[in-house]
Design brief:
Elements: E1 7-17, E2 20-30, E3 39-50, E4 54-66, E5 77-91, E6 97-110, E7 113-123, E8 130-133
Amino acid sequence: SGDMGGTYAITGTITVTGDTFKIDLKIDVDATSGGMGTKQTMVYKGDLTISDTKIDGTLDYDITFDVSGAGVPGATAGTYKLKIKYENVTLDSAGCPTGGKTKIDYDVSAQGQSQKGSVELEYGPKCGDVKMYQ
């Protein structure tokens, strides 16, 4: 239970073994009884390898929200999905990407509208060099 009234529940796990992070987490928020009129479910899933020199793996966010009871003009319900794939992103000694790619797929819907797409970032060869593709 939170300070704003309502309930908050976190279930799942985050496991760290060496440089490997496994994420399977769900957060439910129901603040309708606190006068805010909002419900939200956030699901995070990931399997990442993160070191001083490399990032590789996937991270997914799935968020469902309903703020229709909040008394806010235009408030609505919707979904937000984000899938991030790190493909052998290499890092220099300052932690700056100098190789590899990140692909981001998104799918958002609310108020009867929806948008899907993807963006790919290609890093290197120098720190600060980034090419973006849609």
